[in-house]
Amino acid sequence: MRRLGEVGLLASLAVAGCGSWQRVGTDPHPPRGGTLPSLADAGSVYRRMGFLVAGAPLPFVAAVRYLADSAPTSTLAVFALSLANHSLSFQRDGNTFVAQYHVEVAFRADTTQARQIGSDETVRVRTFQETLRADESVIYQQFVGLPPGVYTVTVTVRDRNAPASTRQERTETVPRFAGRALSSPIPVYEGPGRTGRAQLPKLLVNPRATLPYGGDTLRFYVEAYGLLRGARLVARGFDLSGTEVAHDTVSLTGDERFGAAELAFAPGNLPVGEGSLEVAALVPGSGAPPPQRAPFVVSFSDQWAITNFDEMISLLRYFDRQDWVDSLRKASVADRPSVWRRFYKATDPVPMTPENEALDQYFRRVQTANQRFQESGDPGWLTDRGEVFITLGEPDDVFDFSSDVSRSGVRGVRWTYSSLRLTLFFQDQTGFGRFRLTPMSRAEYQRVLARVRRGQ
Questions:
Q1: Taking the domains of the chain in order of start, what are their residue ranges?
Q2: What distance separates the 2 farthest-apart alpha carbons in the chain?
């Protein structure tokens, strides 16, 4: 297990064989129409990518990748799991904060004996602020040799200082590496890998295969077996629609028995969204090994499944810093990554943490508004109540008189923000549950919101 450093500070290694990706085409603009953007937990994306994903009370994302083992009858499984600091229970220990957790991974098959790995782990951070990190801040990884075959993989994570525990399982096919073969590309943060099958790779795996949009470099480690010395690999990146968006050719280091290479997606070379990497060997004549694929995702956040630039702009319509939102809207396709990096930095209220707390709070409110305030098919975040909730937060008092029209004949809801000295009335004029701010409340809301934003 190793704790992950802050986003944007991961080491950039110069590994032999690393190429430079070239951009193919431009970002396609989604059609403009009546479809409204959605906001979902990022777990839905990782499940679609084939990862093991567990939810509350102890969320994690895990994946198993495979390399050739020292013996031809065994395959080296690379298990990696990630979770966020804020999911664990931290306790003060002198000048630091400490959390402890336990991981168990079981591989079960009908025809072979079960293999199991597990260990107790400790996370130690220096500040209370670090205990609140909601990004991928803890990585656990292990290597285990397995006979090729079909397994049920069960992962259990338990907080050793609290009752929180989660479990997830899926079916995995462990491949056999015989003759000429390529490993599946393994997303990594850093590490030179290895120079032979008898070694354990020196890698820090990227369990979620995620690249923050506009920052860092998405790296993959690939091994080849039985290819000629100096053989080359061609790598192509595809978006979710299957369109090629990047390509490169890299050389393998090693000999005809074992070769390895690192592939790197430079920042800005990939459009936001889900994608896949395909790696194939350039072998003259026949006998080339089958190409290998691996999924990845370029996202604005590892917490929220926002994988479309125009969708992000639309979702930010209520965000405090509309000057910066406008700069994103006006940016050219080529400038979007750099403008996004400046936007992220300029709107981050706590620069010492890797996440942007203002954006995280904003999108949590959007999600809550969607759940609470949906009206006649309209998403909750686009209703008047959703708008007010997202910009001002939870009201101090709510009085619902939508079901009692005996006196005034008016259906509605009253929200009170005591600290802002603001009372708002949402009126249901049609009787079909569509609550709109009264004209006077709309004017008061806009006046108070302007005051709140000036004070930030």
A1: 2-299, 310-454
A2: 88
